[in-house]
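Researcher: Sequence recovery benchmark, item below. Answer with residues only.
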């Protein structure tokens, strides 16, 4: 297939997206596809419209070109009116499939998906509405409650209605403060007292105008991929220090990840059932990854759904797929296959 792998963008997860996109493009090339790597925001200055998907292609050179813009993004955002970079839409329209290696805002929140739907561009992952709902942790929490998917107690707070009194929210310390639409645990704070709480609000509101404040649940962290409505094996996540924040997610050796998770078959089945239930509650299609906390007495809480989860070769979904005997290049092909099904409906 002729495939555009979109990566980069303007979110706080730009660096991770570039790694995901590079790995995806390399894997698809190994499978014989004519894949090219493109930064959705920075684009390419010149495009060969006669042969935009060449047989031979330098992926490392393309990745280096994308990375060269990293320090320029803030200034570019000030002067650009259009989010899509030069030649991006034209290349995507020529492709048979666009693999979304994007993470975070302006990529995972439904905006790109809606534009592509209007333009008739096929892409991986779920549609625009379910992307938008899953991106907003406050909306996700409400939908989980409606569909009896267990989730920590909590509420959303807008910057204009900020309150420093937890009692007004019906909560007590410790709590978690996190941005509504952030990713990779950026803008997530575990707070134990009033001073930490006010500082966390200050920092979270610096990212967005709406935050989630929820009870802190002490327990082990897990994640479950759901692909085409079927749950994959569970990963148990144990950070060496602190919680599963940005540094622990991406720093080599900072976290121990075990798949399949060392829990009983009964608990495995229960968590997988909740993952599938949460997947359908949000109206997700194709694939997603749902994150959980489980307490010592085996109470489970679904925290969120990730509609474009990390796809570096060592990311969580590739680890789950490997247990099923699916290697990384084959997983990339499988995600394309299940994503094409939404165009058959």
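Model:
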């Amino acid at each position: 297939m002729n495939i555009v792998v979109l990566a980069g963008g303007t979110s706080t997860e730009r660096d991770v997206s570039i790694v995901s996109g590079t790995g995806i493009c390399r894997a698809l090339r190994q499978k014989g596809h004519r894949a090219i790597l493109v930064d959705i925001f920075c684009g390419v200055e010149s495009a060969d419209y006669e042969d935009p998907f060449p047989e031979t292609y330098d992926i490392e050179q393309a990745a280096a070109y994308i990375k060269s813009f990293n320090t320029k993004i803030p200034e570019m955002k000030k002067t650009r009116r259009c989010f899509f970079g030069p030649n991006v839409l034209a290349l995507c329209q020529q492709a048979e499939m666009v693999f979304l290696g994007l993470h975070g805002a302006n990529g995972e929140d439904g905006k790109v998906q809606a534009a592509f739907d209007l333009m008739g561009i096929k892409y991986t992952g779920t549609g625009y509405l379910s992307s938008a709902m899953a991106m907003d942790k406050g909306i996700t929490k409400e939908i989980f409650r409606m569909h009896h998917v267990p989730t920590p107690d909590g509420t959303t707070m807008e910057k204009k209605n900020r309150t420093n009194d937890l009692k007004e929210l019906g909560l007590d310390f410790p709590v978690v403060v996190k941005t509504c639409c952030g990713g990779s645990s950026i803008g997530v704070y575990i707070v134990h007292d009033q001073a930490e709480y006010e500082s966390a609000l200050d920092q979270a509101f610096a990212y967005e105008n709406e935050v989630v404040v929820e009870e802190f649940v002490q327990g082990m962290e897990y994640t479950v991929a759901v692909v085409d409505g079927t749950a994959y094996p569970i990963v148990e996540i144990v950070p060496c220090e602190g919680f599963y924040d940005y540094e622990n997610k991406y720093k080599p050796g900072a976290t121990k990840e075990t798949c399949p998770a060392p829990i009983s078959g009964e608990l495995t089945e229960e968590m997988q059932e909740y993952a599938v239930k949460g997947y359908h509650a949000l109206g997700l299609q194709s694939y997603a990854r749902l994150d959980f906390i489980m307490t010592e007495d085996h109470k489970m809480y679904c925290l969120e759904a990730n509609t474009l989860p990390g796809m570096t070769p060592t990311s969580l979904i590739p680890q789950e797929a490997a247990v099923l005997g699916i290697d990384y290049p084959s997983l990339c092909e499988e995600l394309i296959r299940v994503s094409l099904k939404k165009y058959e409906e």
